[in-house]
Amino acid sequence: MQQRSEETRAHILKSALSLFSKNGYDATSVAEICQAAGVSKGAFYHHFVSKQAVFQSLLEGWLSGLNLQMDALLNAAPDVPSGFMRLASMAGPVFRDAQGQFPMFLEFWTQSSRDPALWQTAIAPYRHFLELFSNTLAKGIQQGSIRPMDPKLTAQALLALAMGVVLQAVMDPQETAGGSVAEQGIRLLFEGLKPHQEGDQ
Amino acid sequence: MQQRSEETRAHILKSALSLFSKNGYDATSVAEICQAAGVSKGAFYHHFVSKQAVFQSLLEGWLSGLNLQMDALLNAAPDVPSGFMRLASMAGPVFRDAQGQFPMFLEFWTQSSRDPALWQTAIAPYRHFLELFSNTLAKGIQQGSIRPMDPKLTAQALLALAMGVVLQAVMDPQETAGGSVAEQGIRLLFEGLKPHQEGDQ
Prior knowledge:
The structure is a homodimer.
Chain A: H1 2-23, H2 30-37, H3 41-47, H4 51-76, H5 80-98, H6 102-112, H7 116-143, H8 151-171, H9 178-192
Helix pairs in contact in A: 1-2, 1-4, 4-5, 4-7, 5-9, 6-7, 7-8, 8-9
């Protein structure tokens, strides 16, 4: 029974992801998700309180996978700047995996800017990455691989770059070599974050 | 008669901007715009072929103002890096002026990623800024104020930073000192773009 229930949940998530990506979050109804997943409305509401809860679960699944990869890369790197360079080199594969899903995230963000309840869902991962970047930069400063500066402000700039690369990939997938832009941006930012060498003015 | 017609057009644009910002582009109908502007549907369609044309006109008005300011700042600066720093210092005022309008732009971008006709409207200013940044960087390389690198890729990274700063301002207006993040990001990027000094490795 437990296994059956897990499978139903997975079916709902998979069907919802496919419909959200194809038709948009707003244009997709719970009835359509149920039909595509081959489940009753009763089964749906046994697993999720709302369409928004399905989206939240998809977002959390995607982000927790991304997060594990990011933590592993940052921890395995010899220092903080090379950790971030390795993150940038992840951008290409992340874009490939997420192809077709970004417009849905963008749609959800847009709606959340008008809806306080949705906003809590959208803002949590953003704040989480901001904290991860900020803590990692602070570690780099402590270890001497990054020059002293405001870690939070710099983390916001790094995250802005990452978010902008995502937006470009949504808007202009043909023209945007998302991976290369991320690498170029991070490389330049970390040139600017290098500790001053003896002999510098 | 000519003056009356210009006034009607301006009324329609003002009412549409206010409704789009408050309720969203999708949720706003031509009938509501007409009512708010105090004009007939006939008068509306005399000036605009569709709701999308109104949005396009608002976007073009906003961008051409921004563009004039950017050109003036870049041209008045003593060199390319300080030109971009002056652009970054514009971010604060630009955010204040555009407050409440970004979610609407974001909504339009999202929709345009699914609609080829809208996409042409959304992509044109993006490509324009990309070209402006790319040409300006190429000028800096030629003049020796920027180290030799790929101007287009670097322009994409700069534009990604700018777009990400806008996204942060939409998502997290309380936490985001948009101007400072833009300045920090541009400062670091241009540290990375400095020409190598004699004596550098």
